[in-house]
Design goal:
With about 100 residues, this protein is mainly α. The chain has 2 helices and no strands. Helix 1 runs antiparallel to helix 2.
Length: about 100
Amino acid sequence: MNEQDFQSKLGDLIKQIEALPEDQRGPLQCIAQETKDRHERMKKTVADLQESLDYLRLSVKYLVFDLEATRRENDYLRKLIESQSRRDENDTNGAD
Protein backbone atom coordinates (compact mmCIF):
# COMPACT_ATOMS: atom_id res chain seq x y z
CA MET A 1 0.00 0.00 0.00
CA ASN A 2 1.44 3.33 -0.98
CA GLU A 3 1.18 6.58 0.97
CA GLN A 4 -1.77 7.91 -1.00
CA ASP A 5 -3.79 4.70 -0.52
CA PHE A 6 -3.02 4.69 3.19
CA GLN A 7 -4.10 8.31 3.65
CA SER A 8 -7.26 7.71 1.63
CA LYS A 9 -8.25 4.63 3.63
CA LEU A 10 -7.45 6.31 6.92
CA GLY A 11 -9.56 9.31 5.88
CA ASP A 12 -12.43 6.98 4.97
CA LEU A 13 -12.11 5.24 8.32
CA ILE A 14 -12.19 8.54 10.20
CA LYS A 15 -15.33 9.58 8.28
CA GLN A 16 -16.99 6.27 9.16
CA ILE A 17 -16.03 6.73 12.81
CA GLU A 18 -17.53 10.23 12.81
CA ALA A 19 -20.80 8.77 11.52
CA LEU A 20 -21.07 6.49 14.57
CA PRO A 21 -23.04 7.42 17.68
CA GLU A 22 -21.15 9.68 20.09
CA ASP A 23 -20.65 6.98 22.74
CA GLN A 24 -18.90 4.67 20.25
CA ARG A 25 -16.66 7.29 18.65
CA GLY A 26 -14.22 8.04 21.46
CA PRO A 27 -12.12 4.86 21.58
CA LEU A 28 -12.13 4.45 17.80
CA GLN A 29 -11.07 8.05 17.24
CA CYS A 30 -8.19 7.52 19.66
CA ILE A 31 -7.12 4.38 17.81
CA ALA A 32 -7.35 6.14 14.43
CA GLN A 33 -5.30 9.08 15.73
CA GLU A 34 -2.69 6.72 17.22
CA THR A 35 -2.50 4.92 13.88
CA LYS A 36 -1.98 8.22 12.07
CA ASP A 37 0.68 9.32 14.57
CA ARG A 38 2.51 5.98 14.35
CA HIS A 39 2.45 6.14 10.58
CA GLU A 40 3.96 9.63 10.64
CA ARG A 41 6.69 8.49 13.05
CA MET A 42 7.38 5.46 10.87
CA LYS A 43 7.69 7.67 7.77
CA LYS A 44 10.11 9.95 9.62
CA THR A 45 12.13 6.95 10.84
CA VAL A 46 12.33 5.52 7.31
CA ALA A 47 13.43 8.91 5.95
CA ASP A 48 16.07 9.18 8.69
CA LEU A 49 17.30 5.67 7.91
CA GLN A 50 17.48 6.48 4.21
CA GLU A 51 19.50 9.60 4.98
CA SER A 52 21.83 7.58 7.21
CA LEU A 53 22.29 4.97 4.49
CA ASP A 54 23.08 7.68 1.95
CA TYR A 55 25.66 9.15 4.31
CA LEU A 56 27.13 5.69 4.95
CA ARG A 57 27.39 5.00 1.21
CA LEU A 58 29.16 8.31 0.67
CA SER A 59 31.51 7.65 3.59
CA VAL A 60 32.38 4.21 2.21
CA LYS A 61 33.13 5.75 -1.20
CA TYR A 62 35.48 8.25 0.43
CA LEU A 63 37.16 5.49 2.42
CA VAL A 64 37.64 3.33 -0.69
CA PHE A 65 39.08 6.32 -2.54
CA ASP A 66 41.43 7.04 0.37
CA LEU A 67 42.48 3.38 0.57
CA GLU A 68 43.24 3.25 -3.16
CA ALA A 69 45.24 6.49 -2.94
CA THR A 70 47.17 5.14 0.05
CA ARG A 71 47.96 1.92 -1.84
CA ARG A 72 49.20 3.89 -4.85
CA GLU A 73 51.30 6.06 -2.59
CA ASN A 74 52.74 3.00 -0.81
CA ASP A 75 53.61 1.38 -4.16
CA TYR A 76 55.33 4.56 -5.29
CA LEU A 77 57.28 4.88 -2.04
CA ARG A 78 58.34 1.19 -2.13
CA LYS A 79 59.67 1.65 -5.66
CA LEU A 80 61.45 4.80 -4.59
CA ILE A 81 63.05 3.00 -1.62
CA GLU A 82 64.03 0.03 -3.81
CA SER A 83 65.65 2.27 -6.41
CA GLN A 84 67.45 4.19 -3.67
CA SER A 85 68.66 0.91 -2.14
CA ARG A 86 69.92 -0.30 -5.53
CA ARG A 87 71.78 2.96 -6.09
CA ASP A 88 73.34 2.73 -2.64
CA GLU A 89 74.43 -0.88 -3.35
CA ASN A 90 75.89 0.13 -6.71
CA ASP A 91 77.73 3.04 -5.09
CA THR A 92 79.08 0.73 -2.38
CA ASN A 93 80.13 -1.96 -4.87
CA GLY A 94 81.62 0.59 -7.26
CA ALA A 95 83.72 2.15 -4.51
CA ASP A 96 85.43 -1.17 -3.72
